[in-house]
Write a structure and sequence with these properties.
Layout lengths: L18 H12 L8 H5 L1 H30 L5 H32 L9
Helix pairs in contact: 1-3, 1-4, 3-4
Length: 120
């Protein structure tokens, strides 16, 4: 079965045995641990995907805002090398979160019934 680039390796292809179960497990790893307490999210993977999409989008926004303000907010409290290390962490985390958002969006589309076809 074809899955598009960006499809998470931990999620089985749509239509394969227990693909939705693998999607739920992976999506639960993408949201705060407290989300595991809500059975409705396990029973309705599409609802979980929607919440994960929103949560990751908020994390991206928070990382962008954090990056923009870190040097100013921390300059009186941390040495310059520590501030640069914090900025490096943001530089690594931002692209990871964007890739995660793209993967969550693909899983959500599949949960909505979309079929992926290879492009030439």
């Amino acid at each position: 079965m074809y899955v598009p680039p960006g499809w998470p390796a931990e999620v089985r292809p749509p239509g394969s045995p227990d693909w939705k179960g693998s999607a739920v497990s992976w999506l639960l790893d993408a949201v705060p641990p407290d989300y595991r307490a809500y059975g409705v999210l396990r029973r309705h993977p599409l609802a979980l995907a929607r919440m994960a999409r929103q949560q990751v989008a908020a994390s991206i926004q928070a990382a962008r805002e954090g990056y923009r303000g870190a040097a100013v907010d921390l300059k009186e409290h941390l040495p310059p090398h520590a501030i640069e290390a914090v900025l490096d962490a943001y530089r690594q985390e931002g692209p990871r979160l964007v890739r995660l958002a793209e993967s969550v969006a693909l899983v959500e589309r599949a949960l909505r019934g979309e079929h992926f076809l290879p492009r030439l």
